[in-house]
Design goal:
heterodimer, A: mainly alpha, B: 2 domains, globular, binds adenosine-5'-triphosphate, binds magnesium ion
Chain lengths: ~260, ~270
């Protein structure tokens, strides 16, 4: 029993310690961001590997999620004779919820895990140490550009996800099920609000991008410098990111739409 | 005044003492060798000098500055004047040999690319790898990687270079060249060198002064000639590489026979 309490205590302490290190890491990283505007090419490189390379999975998933939404939405709406509202249903679901959340989950799996593995391997092969000895701060030179790239990419990827999803739903709804295309688009335009819907979705995806990239980079930087350690850190990135995304989504949704 | 002054250095990894009261002076313009059996803490010593690790007690002064009392930016300024050759090379794996050597120049100077190119080719020529400049680190052998790392460490023309095991993985020819090279850059560039190694004969050839470390202490120091004449059995065994003698080959712990006979005690 004493041992249980003791190990629980030790676990708690080390968890708090990690949390503290994570925040110091974040401060250090944020401090490195202003300097990046002088060397924006570093960020552009990372925009490619973090953002562009995630495009394919975002496009394909977005298309299928949209097509499924189209099918399911139509089946429900048609019972009430409201299939013309398919456009609104799909756009609101995507822009408010599915776009930011699903694309963030995919982003964590595709880009987040890659970032953790990359940084973890750089650590275990002493590249970060070597850089420090060359008087180059690895957090500013390596970590900060990746963080900024993640922050920029995430909202754009989420927007692309939603746009492709709407196209998928339109293909199914209009092409397959015969919903009137004029009604589909005009209702969507009339009922989707720029601030309430689109901006709130964008805010969500910025928050998710921030958290996922932070987790991924910190896990890599804090990984035990062995192959096993890097492997475990990569898994932790995906799991912790998923929890963070879903938890934060609930909080943000309650804040944004709770009083309607 | 010596370039590096280490006084009463204590350093622990968990409960294990790595250093217990080490005093070392590294003289300017000389090649100083740090030798000792594997696992005595030679790499650790270099990391302490570079300010990557913090001593538990004692001080390390480099060029009159206490490394562990400097602010972050002062430490970074100091590091620009220290070159370090890692045991593993520590090359950046996402860029090629040329860019690796150019990396510190691009980070710390505003030199135009044409000048950087000249400097990089000069350093690569010195280590015999000018024509390997387009290879990626994954395409290099261990010995080649270490020579690229040497070219990179020289790039900023530092006041000192720390070599962690520069000779391992070198064939006899490149070994000879490397020994020469270390000597030459030490004299020509007027810098100070610290060579960590267990290759006794090569090290004795270039070192002006040798420190022998073991069990967390300096057990002998002196010029190569003095060490070879040392009366200590330990020093004789180490310098001649004899299998039997007082130098422990095993990591400290219970005796092998006890370990076999009482498995429950030493599980
Ligand atoms: N990160 C670490 N955590 C805990 N112990 C470590 C760590 N790094 C090294 N050690 C311990 O410190 C001791 C000294 O290690 P170090 O790498 O300095 O040895 P070394 O003298 O360079 O050996 P070699 O000649 O084999 O390179 C070793 O016994 C090792 O067990
Ligand atoms: Mg070593």
């Amino acid at each position: 029993m004493i041992n249980l309490i003791r190990s629980l205590g030790r676990w708690g302490l080390s968890a708090f310690e990690r949390l503290g290190r994570g925040h110091i890491f974040l401060m250090h990283m944020l401090a490195g961001i202003p300097g990046l505007f002088l060397r924006f090419s570093l960020v552009v490189q990372q925009l490619f590997s973090v953002g562009v390379l995630s495009l394919l999975i975002i496009l394909i998933s977005g298309l299928f999620v949209g097509m499924v939404l189209g099918l399911q939405g139509y089946n429900t709406l048609v019972d009430f004779g409201a299939e013309e509202s398919l456009g609104v249903l799909v756009s609101l679901s995507l822009v408010r919820e599915l776009g930011p959340v699903v694309s963030a989950l995919l982003f964590a799996g595709r880009a987040g895990s890659a970032l953790t593995a990359e940084i973890g391997l750089m650590k275990s092969t002493e590249q970060l140490s070597g850089m420090e000895m060359m008087a180059v701060d690895p957090i500013r030179r390596i970590i900060a550009p990746r963080f900024l790239a993640g922050l920029i990419s995430m909202p754009i990827l989420a927007a692309i996800f939603s746009a492709v999803g709407i196209i998928g739903a339109f293909l199914v709804g209009h092409g397959l099920l015969g919903v009137d295309d004029g009604a589909f688009w005009s209702q969507m335009q009339a009922k989707t609000d720029f601030y309430d819907d689109i901006m709130n979705g964008v805010i969500k995806s910025v928050v998710f991008g921030f958290v996922v990239t932070w987790i991924a980079l910190f896990e890599g930087y804090d990984a035990t410098p062995t192959s096993e350690g890097v492997g475990r850190a990569t898994t932790r990135t995906v799991v912790h990111s998923a929890f963070a995304i879903l938890g934060l989504d609930f909080v943000l949704t309650a804040l944004m739409f709770g009083d309607e | 005044m010596p370039l590096i002054k280490i006084r009463d250095l204590h350093f622990y990894r968990g409960n294990r003492a790595i250093f217990e009261g080490v005093n070392i002076d590294i003289q300017r313009g000389k090649v100083t060798a740090i030798m000792g059996p594997s696992g005595t803490g030679k790499t650790t010593l270099l990391k302490l000098i570079g300010g990557q690790l913090r001593p538990d007690k004692g001080t390390i002064e480099v060029d009159g500055q206490d490394v562990h009392k400097l602010s972050r930016s002062e430490l970074y300024e100091l590091r620009k004047r220290m070159g370090m050759l890692f045991q593993s090379g520590a090359l950046l794996t996402d860029i090629n040999v040329y860019d690796n050597v150019a990396f510190p120049l691009r980070e710390h100077t505003d030199l135009p690319e044409t000048l950087i190119r000249d400097l990089v080719l000069m350093k690569l020529q010195a280590v015999g790898l000018r024509n390997a400049r387009n290879l990626h680190p994954s395409e290099l052998s261990g010995g080649m990687a270490r020579r690229v790392a040497l070219a990179r460490a020289m790039a900023l023309e530092p006041m000192m270079i720390m070599y962690d095991e520069p000779f391992t993985g070198q064939d006899p020819i490149s070994m000879g060249t490397l020994v020469n090279l270390i000597h030459r850059i030490n004299d020509a560039m007027g810098l100070s060198s610290i060579v960590v190694s267990h290759d006794v004969s090569e090290t004795a050839e270039i070192a002006d002064y040798i420190y022998l470390l073991s069990g967390g202490k300096v057990i002998e120091q002196g010029s190569p000639v003095q060490l070879k004449r040392s009366g200590s059995q330990w020093v004789q065994q180490f310098m001649q590489g004899l299998p039997d003698g007082p130098v422990p080959f095993h990591y400290a712990g219970p005796e092998f026979a006890d370990d076999l006979l009482k498995p429950e005690e030493y599980a």
